[in-house]
Amino acid sequence: MAITSLSSSLLESLLASLTLGRVTALVFLLTIVSFAIDSTRKPTYPKSLPRVGFTGGIGATVRNWMNLGNYHNWVEEGYNKYGKHGRSFVTPSSPSQPDEIVVPREQVAWMLEQPETVASTQESHKDVLFGTYNFFNVDDHFPTKVMHKHLARNLVTLLPDIQQEVAECIDIAFGTDTENWTTLNLWEALLAIVPRVMNRLAVGLPLCRNQAFLSSQVGFADDVFRNCLILTLFPTVLHPLVGRLVTLPNWYHFHQGYRLLKPVIEQRLRDYERFESGESQTPPEESLITWLIRQAKADNLPHEQTPYMIAMRLLPIEFAAIHTTVITLHALFLDLLASDPSKDYLSILREETTAVLQSEPNGIWTKNGLARLYRTDSAIRESMRLSTFSTGLTHRKVVAKEGITNPFEGWHAPYGAILMANMSVQHDADIYEDPKTYDALRFSRVREEYEARSQEEVEKGKDNTEEALRIKRLGVVTTSSEFLPFSHGRHACPGRFFVAHEVKMMLAHILQNYDIKPIAERPRPTWVAHTIIPALDVKIEVKRRQRKN
Prior knowledge:
Its cofactor is heme. One of its GO terms (biological process) is antibiotic biosynthetic process. This protein is α+β, with helices and mostly antiparallel strands. It has two domains: about 40-125 and about 390-425, no CATH class; about 130-385 and about 430-480 and about 485-540, CATH 1.10.630.10. About 55% of the residues lie in helices and about 5% in strands. The chain has a five-stranded mixed sheet. A three-stranded antiparallel sheet has the order 4-12-9. About 40% of the residues are buried.
């Protein structure tokens, strides 16, 4: 009894002493100590490497953290001072991440050639996206492999379905009023289109049109994006606590979607078994679900053939395909609508897409038809070149215990170091003429000039194979050390071919069926560390075009 009384007395005394000021001071002290512990775990870089941002001790580090909106400026400054002259440099990163070594364009190939056991793509992705928490520690290796093996070979046969979905959901989002202008929030309109089109490929009909399912996928993607911003501001020693708290909405949205997705996956598994056994002559519907099943069976991975794991494997694909495509389309429309009216880009692209679609069999897009949209392709590539949504999308984390030594400059990157290719190369005036101006036809002009003289040179017996290959590299899906929105090398985005077809079909349908008023000035996005937050409040005015008889 005396012990119980003493414990109660101590508890009451402790609670009485916990004033708001003391709690605040305790939290502040805990945060400082946590960041101090973090700093001892981060890799240290050679002093020979130049730095951008504030430099000179803990005070400079704190100032860097307080200037998250300046990171993209520092990366561009570093490129102009060092990168374009063949030198690597160090750029600050967010509080929870190590600083990054930004390699020059000439060294990107060396960085990408490193084996996964030396400089890892998967580990860098896991760190950037906080995969342990956001994706429940389920890696993206298997779904990425599936995309590489199955997307390109099946995409052609899925184009009619995708075109149908594009037309139907754009007409719903943009309306059918031919008499009056309609004001739309551009971000919200695109968010009503992209998830449905993407899920026609991922899960098929009718689930791709189920609004509750789509909302769960968009909600999950929003959760990941928000959590990345939150976790990047917390020291890593607190991540086991904070990470599990902030990702509770992830679990909620996953289970919302899984409730609707589970019977679809179960039916697909049954359809696959019946077809494989010869019981049915009807093959299962081609979709990402089917490809995950097919690859799991080919690799003899029973644990990958459960509805729960298949649903988990869809999550990173859904996240990447939804938000990056919406951001890309959002930037594309802002670039087109805010461009010089005298260029009349919308009419030029409308004419091209209309002419090519009219030549397609039954008005259905084919791979070859979409490939002939040179000007449309150029407009998309140019927007992705100019309006980047990150300072770097090509990272490697040094995972070799002994680190890695740069053979060009001699510096040594220790275990845990982050290497990055600099997207500021896309704004280099030595590579791109007038690089800060949106020129929708920048890349198509080169193609058209080549085709104009190609036939004549062939008739003269000249070998233009090398130039033909160079021209082919100007397509939106072609990556290089000078064009990095899809990353580069063997780990370049495997879904970029679908994205290119999807965006072209969307742009074509919108331009052929709607008039859109130009905007006076392109709204600027907000930068947080190395990533943008688009101008989500932008509104556009659209009107359905009247069909000609």
